[in-house]
């Protein structure tokens, strides 16, 4: 498994292009904005997008879903519990401010523990409610794409609609802290970290 990071939008969302180095088949995780930044990276590495994955439904993570889908004709997957967030963003002031386009409806709903295959790359869906009801991570190859559940030195906010601090803490404790300490964590914003580093130093995990 390899990946390329493209930071997009006013809120500096981490969009990840996760791909099989052999086949170059690629999943686009969280195309939140600025598709014009994402397209050149796909072209530079000759990637072949086969799937769009959303870790959750907030506008800064889904704002370029439509662009990706129209350009590459690939399916969009998200957890069913975040479908209302896709509906809520339509025509919202925040969407306009961030330059986001209304997301198309999902082609499939992600299910906890299901395995997603991109070429020879396998990622397991890890449902981590708290930041949003349908927040998920994608785990495989000693790497976790954590969305906005866990950051380097922090955790996702829970004061937005559908957020729950109790659920977030449970998700991190039961679904993330149980992963091997060397697991690389690639969050939805900010720098990468590891599970071990966060257990040792993240003030929200003590």
Please explain how this structure is put together.
- The protein is of the alpha/beta class and 206 residues long.
- The chain has 7 helices and 14 strands.
- It has helices at residues 35-44, 59-62, 65-72, 83-88, 93-98, 165-176, 195-201, and strands spanning 2-8, 13-19, 25-29, 48-53, 76-79, 108-110, 115-118, 121-127, 136-140, 143-147, 150-151, 154-155, 184-187, 193-194.
- The strands form 3 sheets. A 6-stranded mixed sheet has the order 1-2-3-4-5-6, covered by helices on one side.
- It starts with a strand and ends in a 5-residue tail after the last helix.
Looking at CATH, the homologous superfamily is Ribonuclease Z/Hydroxyacylglutathione hydrolase-like
> Looking at the chains present, what oligomeric state does this protein adopt?
single chain
Biggest β-sheet: strands ordered side by side in the sheet:
1-2-3-4-5-6
Q: In the CATH scheme, what's the topology name?
A: Metallo-beta-lactamase, Chain A
Strand content: 25-35%
State the helix count: 7
Shape: globular
Range of helix content: 25-40%
Main CATH class: Alpha Beta
CATH architecture: 4-Layer Sandwich
């Amino acid at each position: 498994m390899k990946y390329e990071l493209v930071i997009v939008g006013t809120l500096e969302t981490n969009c990840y292009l996760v791909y099989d180095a052999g086949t170059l088949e690629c999943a686009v995780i969280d195309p939140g904005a600025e598709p014009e930044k994402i397209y050149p990276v796909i072209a530079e590495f000759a990637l072949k997008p086969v799937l769009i994955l959303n870790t959750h439904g907030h506008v800064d993570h889904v704002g370029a879903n439509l662009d990706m889908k129209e350009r590459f004709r690939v399916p969009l997957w998200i957890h069913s519990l975040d479908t209302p967030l896709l509906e809520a963003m339509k025509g919202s002031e925040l969407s306009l401010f961030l330059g986001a386009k209304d997301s198309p409806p999902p082609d499939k709903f992600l299910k906890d523990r299901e395995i997603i295959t991109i070429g020879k790359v396998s990622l397991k869906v890890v449902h981590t409610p708290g930041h949003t009801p349908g927040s998920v991570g994608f785990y495989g190859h000693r790497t976790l794409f954590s969305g906005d559940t866990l950051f380097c030195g922090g955790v996702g906010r829970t004061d937005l609609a559908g957020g729950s601090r109790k659920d977030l803490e449970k998700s991190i404790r039961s679904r993330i802290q149980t992963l091997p300490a060397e697991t690389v964590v690639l969050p939805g914003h900010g720098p990468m970290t590891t599970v071990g580093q966060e257990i040792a130093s993240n003030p929200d995990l003590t």
